[in-house]
């Protein structure tokens, strides 16, 4: 990623206020491969039914799968991303809801599928990860599936590439990449299979399947 991308980032309030489409359209080959692998995995794993995309951003995942489900809803906490979603996603079978994924405004057992992509889970502390997974499980039907894509143990070079491209500084600390900049910072975790399994089981999911998505990412499928 170029300095130009870094410069675009400088006056933003947080990483979630960036123009995700700009970064998606200018992604490096490794990230294009990662995103295409997410699309392929989801398209091969879901059919019909209702889908909820957690942290929907600018609508990349909704656009990739909306034609194979009956309906889809994207939730996001950022007003910038809600505006992007309203502009970007086809209106027919896709809804947009401004909400926090730790406390979802949907009734129990309503959705067939939920998705949490681009290693978004790794931006939360463990207590919030538990809330997110338990909320996702609550809104799923019995047998419904949550798909979570995350950075794997060996992803540091790819995290550095991505976040320095956004204009942040990064440093490596255990399983965490600490991302900092003039507008604040956040963490991006790299996951082991054991950690994913433990998070899913603690949230009450009955089956867990973990598959490498690229050489540096996993897809974790959790079944209610
Ligand atoms: C890394 S982006 C992923 C966007 C999209 N899912 C994709 O893969 O292209 C994470 C998204 O989660 C949203 N987000 C962060 N914390 C959230 C929360 N507590 N509740 C809902 N959305 C949140 C951010 O605003 C951002 O749009």
Description:
The protein is an alpha/beta fold and 224 residues long. The protein has one domain: Vaccinia Virus protein VP39 (Rossmann fold), CATH 3.40.50.150. It has eight helices and ten strands. It has helices spanning 3-9, 20-25, 29-45, 60-65, 79-88, 126-139, 156-165, 193-202; strands spanning 50-54, 71-76, 94-98, 111-116, 140-151, 169-173, 176-181, 184-189, 207-214, 217-223. The strands form two sheets. A seven-stranded mixed beta sheet has the order 3-2-1-4-5-10-9. Strands 6-7-8 form a three-stranded antiparallel beta sheet, covered by helices on one side. It is globular, with a radius of gyration of 16 Å. The model is unreliable at 1-12 (pLDDT under 50). The site of S-adenosylmethionine has 18 residues, from helix 4 and strand 2.
Question: What labels describe this entry?
Answer:
disordered N terminus; binds S-adenosylmethionine; 10 strands; alpha/beta; 224 residues; Rossmann fold; 7-stranded mixed sheet
């Amino acid at each position: 990623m170029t300095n130009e991308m870094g410069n675009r980032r400088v006056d933003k309030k947080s990483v979630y206020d960036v123009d995700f489409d700009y970064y998606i359209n200018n992604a490096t080959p490794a990230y294009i491969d990662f995103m295409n692998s997410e699309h392929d995995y989801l398209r091969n794993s879901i059919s019909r039914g209702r889908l909820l995309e957690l942290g929907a951003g600018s609508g990349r995942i909704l656009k990739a799968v909306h034609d194979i489900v009956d309906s889809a809803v994207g939730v996001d906490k950022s007003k910038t991303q809600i505006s992007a979603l309203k502009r970007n996603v086809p209106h027919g079978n896709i809804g947009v809801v401004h909400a926090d994924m730790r406390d979802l405004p949907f009734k129990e057992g309503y959705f067939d599928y939920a998705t949490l992509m681009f290693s978004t889970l790794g931006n939360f502390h463990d207590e919030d990860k538990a809330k997110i997974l338990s909320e996702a499980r609550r809104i799923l039907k019995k047998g419904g599936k949550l798909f979570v894509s995350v950075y794997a143990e060996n992803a540091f070079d790819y995290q550095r590439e991505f976040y320095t491209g956004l204009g942040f500084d990064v440093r490596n600390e255990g399983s965490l990449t600490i991302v900092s900049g003039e507008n604040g910072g956040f963490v991006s975790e790299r996951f082991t299979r054991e950690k994913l399994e433990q998070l899913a089981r603690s949230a009450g999911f009955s089956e867990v399947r973990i598959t490498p998505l690229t050489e540096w990412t996993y897809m974790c499928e959790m079944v209610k």
